[in-house]
Amino acid sequence: QVQMVQSGSDVRKPGASVKVSCKPSGYPFSAYNIHWVRQAPGQGLEWMGSINPDNSDTKYAQKFLGRVTMTVDTSISTIYMELSGLTSDDSAVYYCARDRVHSNYNLPGCAYWGQGTLVTVSS
Amino acid sequence: DIQMTQSPSSLSASVGDRVTITCRASQSIRTYVNWYQQKPGKAPKLLIYSAYSLQSGVPSRFSGSGSGTEFALTIDSLEPEDFATYYCQQGTGTPPWSFGQGTKVDIK
């Protein structure tokens, strides 16, 4: 069965960076786009960006351009999301999620989700 | 960018009620809308894709409708486990793949 396992909670100081990992299993690693979605406490879902693990093509939300980097390490079948220049507004749960259909179809829809990674930004 | 606006932001309902949540896109997205359910402390769950297609394993009391800019998620005969927050998401081929602000369904 498909599983998405994320790294554990993290605490960072303002101005620092955080790197969250996501390790999928149960399907061909390179076949499906991976999205990153975050949720601040008591707030809604915010799409941050996505990556195609086959060719590392990325698409980022305008809000995060220049601060977010999504990468793939195919040798260990792991996807990373790094966010820099952290402020308290970046305190949130960060989710990775796999598309429902093969990346060739370009029909986004997050069918499988990680458990979420709580990132707290505090001095 | 395509904006997704949900209404209402919250509603109270009873077990057995029929509930409808609406989502409006800022421009036509044909039938490219997804619906998710999220319970407190849990990751979202995909319910509906492409406006009206039920994701595998989702009960048939959930249904989606609409096209263009107006969409709806309907829950027939609300069950206790359906009290949650629901989000729409634009699912065209063009990012950003933004979500609506959410609709919280709680117990009356």
Describe, in plain words, how this protein is organized in 3D:
The complex is a heterodimer of chains A (123) and B (108). Chain A contains no helices and eleven strands. Chain A has strands at 3-6, 10-12, 18-25, 34-39, 46-52, 57-60, 68-73, 78-83, 92-99, 110-113, 117-121. Chain A is mainly β and 123 residues long. In chain A, the strands form two sheets. In chain A, strands 2, 4, 5, 6, 9, 10 and 11 form a seven-stranded mixed β-sheet that branches. Chain A has a four-stranded antiparallel β-sheet with strand order 1-3-8-7, with no helix packed on it. The N and C termini of chain B lie far apart (36 Å). Chain B has no helices and ten strands. In chain B, 0% of the residues lie in helices and 47% in strands. Chain B has strands at residues 4-7, 10-13, 19-25, 33-38, 45-49, 53-54, 62-67, 70-75, 85-90, 103-107. With 108 residues, chain B is an all-beta fold. In chain B, the strands form two sheets. A six-stranded mixed β-sheet of chain B has the order 2-10-9-4-5-6, with no helix packed on it. A four-stranded antiparallel β-sheet of chain B has the order 1-3-8-7, with no helix packed on it. Chain B is globular and about 35 Å long. The mean pLDDT of chain B is 97. In chain B, a hairpin with a 2-residue loop joins strand 7 (62-67) and strand 8. Classes of the chains: A mainly beta (123), B mainly beta (108). The A-B interface holds A 35, 37, 44-47, 49-50, 59, 61-62, 95, 97, 100, 106-111, 113-116 and B 1, 32, 34, 36, 38, 43-46, 49-50, 55, 87, 89, 91, 93, 95-102.
Quick take:
The complex is a heterodimer of chains A (123) and B (108). By secondary structure, chain A is mainly beta. Helix content of chain A is 0%, strand content 50%.
Primary descriptors:
heterodimer; A: 123 residues; mainly beta; seven-stranded mixed sheet; four-stranded antiparallel sheet; 11 strands; 50% strand; globular; B: 108 residues; six-stranded mixed sheet; 0% helix
